[in-house]
Amino acid sequence: METRRLPADQAGIIKAAQALKAGQVVGVPTETVYGLGADALNPRAVAAIFEAKGRPADNPLIVHVLGKAQAQALAALTPLAISLMDAFWPGPLTLVAPRLPVVPDIVTAGLPTVALRAPSHPAMRALLLESGLAIAAPSANRSGAPSPTAPEHVLADLSGLIPLVLDGGPCEVGLESTVVDATGALPLVLRPGAVTPEMIAAVAGDCLVAPSAMRPLKEGEAALSPGLRHRHYAPKAPLTLVKGPPDRVAAHIRRLCAQEEGACVLVLEERLPAYQGLSTFSLGQDLGQAAHRLFALLRQADEAGCKRILAEALPEEGLGLALMNRLARAADFDIQSV
Ligand code: TXA
Ligand code: MG
């Protein structure tokens, strides 16, 4: 199969909507990461997503909608879910709510709940409107690889496996949406993202964060969000995270680099002077830029032939929590404290 890349203009959106309505899968831009979309109410189309990604069938998908009205046709919304939608939609927030019977089992991996999100990317909104569909879409990477934040990444992973990628440029946020369980009285963050626990608490009064957001699951422990069971976001080169006072972190990373051929360092711009003479990748000026760049840099490190990636830990507050969640998983929890 040849994979076509179409600009996300009016003609491209009409073509992509036709493909979705015909039961095909399409690479779609969102403000977080690229998705691999299909008609959420067509089980055969959704099955094609799992096949193209090589995704385990026990990992449920996010269903993308235009907003609250469309969400209400798919799930029983709690007052909490509605207040979070009013505050953060359209945007990088996914809400887990009890599903209605119209939602096929394959979308939710048999769970009684469904994950819903209204994306803000104008091309994705135009596609939702043009197609009239709810669009199920996981990130458009091969399962386990870093999420795609540019159309080139989707093509690198899925070229030949899907008919079409809608090119909406690089993704603004760069990390996947915050996933929040909104079935109870209090919001519970299952996967941190750009909508932070602090922002959610400002709306809901309080916000819980699943402990599994920042540590590996224990043997036999059930995952609140099935995606947390699987290794994620991993570049080919092994990644090590180093945590501690800046001077000691730099000394430790320099030592590790001296021991291992082909190591490279991934840090914020302001930390580059501590690593002069080494191969470095800059995460940019602040956490927002770091989020925007992280997955692209992990791919670049692989392309550059990097044999090991050494990254400084970031503060686990605000957007830092989401960044550290992704880094820790990319490192398979190889986190060294100094
Ligand atoms: O930003 C995003 O969320 C992107 C774009 C394309 O919207 N999508 C994305 O999808 O990251 P994916 O499939 O890579 O991640 C979906 C996450 C997984 O961790 C999955 O386990 C969780 O959402 N999830 C989906 N349905 C769930 C449910 N009913 N209960 C708990 N977790 C659920
Ligand atoms: Mg994913």
What report would you give on this structure?
It is a single chain. An 11-stranded mixed beta sheet has the order 1-8-2-3-7-4-6-5-9-10-11, sandwiched between helices. The chain has 338 residues and is of the alpha/beta class. It is globular and about 55 Å long. The protein contains 11 helices and 16 strands. It has helices spanning 10-21, 43-53, 68-72, 79-88, 105-108, 122-131, 151-158, 197-204, 246-259, 287-303, 319-330; strands at 4-7, 26-28, 35-39, 62-64, 93-98, 113-117, 135-136, 164-167, 178-181, 188-191, 208-209, 239-243, 263-267, 280-282, 308-312, 335-337. Strand 2 and strand 3 form a beta hairpin. The longest helix is centred in the last third of the chain and has 17 residues, at 287-303. Helix content is 33%, strand content 19%. Helix 10 packs parallel to helix 11 (319-330). The relative contact order is 0.15. Residues 30, 32-33, 35, 59-62, 92, 94, 96, 108, 111, 113-115, 117, 137-139, 176-177, 179, 190-191, 225-227 line the site of threonylcarbamoyladenylate (TXA).
Q: Which secondary structure elements does this structure contain, and how are they paired or packed?
A:
Blueprint: E1 4-7, H1 10-21, E2 26-28, E3 35-39, H2 43-53, E4 62-64, H3 68-72, H4 79-88, E5 93-98, H5 105-108, E6 113-117, H6 122-131, E7 135-136, H7 151-158, E8 164-167, E9 178-181, E10 188-191, H8 197-204, E11 208-209, E12 239-243, H9 246-259, E13 263-267, E14 280-282, H10 287-303, E15 308-312, H11 319-330, E16 335-337
This protein binds threonylcarbamoyladenylate and magnesium ion (MG).
